[in-house]
Amino acid sequence: MSWWKQARAKWLSFLRRLIDLLSGVLFRVAYAIKGKGSMPPIRNLLLLEPAMSIAAKIRNRKISSEEVVKTFISRVEEINPILNCVVDQRFEEALEEARAVDKLLATTDKTAEEIEKETPFLGVPFSTKDAIKVKGMSFTAGLYCRKDVRADGDAETVALLRAAGAIPLVITNTSEVCMWWESHNRVYGRTNNPYDTSKIVGGSSGGEACNLSAAGTPFGLGSDIGGSIRMPCFFNGIFGHKPTRCVISNHGEWPEASDTHQTYLGTGPMSRFATDLVPMVKILAKKDLRLDEKVDLRKMRIYYMEDDGGSPHLSPVDPDIRQAMRKVIEYLSQAHGLKPKKVDFPKLRRAVSIWLAKMNLVGVPDFCQQLANCEGSINLGWELAKWMVGQSNHTFIALMTAFTERFGVQPGTPHYERLFNMCQDLHNEFQTLLGDDGVFLYPTHPTPAPYHNEPVLRPFNFAYTAIINVLGFPATAIPLGLSRDGLPIGIQVIGGLLSDRLTLAMALELEKAFGGWVPPKIDV
């Protein structure tokens, strides 16, 4: 690197840190004046159980499905006025389906083992984001011109969970067109973090992660094209899995992904408990991921990085997150005799540029078209002018996303081609290193949940998750307790192609070692 580039990088890093420092102080003062809401504590022990445990109690007739559904309905009604995570519900239909489950269990001759094999989540309610179809329910993806759109059927993933006995209960909030890391839109408003309502929940599956963390449902579905499962899981202290590319169907979602974007988009499970992830992936996966094979952690190779190597456009990794990573390294070394190896992928410093280039494709609807529901295109300049006087139906960040796409690196240019080649080279480097027995530990995000609107001043911090999407690898978000400010922190674990079983096994292990989800408030 030339002296000029080094000097420029140092200046940008200094500027990035200064902006972070000043914005943190300003937002802290602003929200200290404004105040924040208090989430009601969890009082029912049923809300503290994994979905698999609840399913076992239902099929063994220790509790009725109707009682379970009523319990979670009550919880949603309790939390949603404060958190605004749920945007639509089917309470009456869910209760009818629960009663049908109870009637079936009262008359069937099947054993609990047979029921578990055929319908492992029989009678258990679940949730999904407002971008994945549930018949008859809101299907807006946070876009104002879709505010009256209802799903005409179930997404393939929802249909698979229904076939496994699960009952859809609620639809959860997203960012506008699912393309930002705060869940806020002009249809349903903004979602608040259950640990601190002045903080964000992430996006675009932010309402889903918030609802799950606050125990609104036992488990749910999210989708992830730039970290939209993993970032919300990180900010809300729960588990989530972005699968290997093209392993789980994205059919029945909006925005509709192009054939190429399908390889970046991953639909996957989200839950307070790691124990629910593998059963969900078994139901949803279209390919054999060898999930029934026992994973011997002692034979696993572990690699890690504590940050991206120093991109000047990203916030520094918070000391609490670095410390959590070091505790994981120490635990794996002492408990399993592993020798985690610190590595360096210099190309990760270009993660933002690579992701933006890979998303900007010829022959697919651009973001201005998506903001018009792919029925024409918005006039970006006019919408920005309307926003300035409070008359636009779009969020500021959605318009800025369209602006960035239009004036960013364009397909066909030499720089664009270099970024594409860099991505392929990085993919090959990762796959060669990890093989089918290695995992890579990496921050999910550089900081705990920021204040509402603060991501506008930290726009590229999503790079830690986004780069994994365009590489196509599986990645599991794993919570590791709370920061000194009481906010969730954690890491993501990344595997080679089709090595989902390794990252999911690591989630189970670290949940046992570090406790997993920490309830925001509890009083039982």
From TrEMBL:
Signal peptide, first to last residue: none
A cellular component annotation (GO) from this entry: endomembrane system
Active site residues according to the UniProt entry: K129 (charge relay system), S204 (charge relay system), S228 (acyl-ester intermediate)
Positions of the Amidase domain: 67-504
Domain of life the protein comes from: Eukaryota
Pfam families (alphabetical): Amidase
UniProt similarity note: Belongs to the amidase family.
PANTHER family in the record: FATTY-ACID AMIDE HYDROLASE, FATTY-ACID AMIDE HYDROLASE 2
Protein's name in the database: Amidase domain-containing protein
Organism: Cloeon dipterum
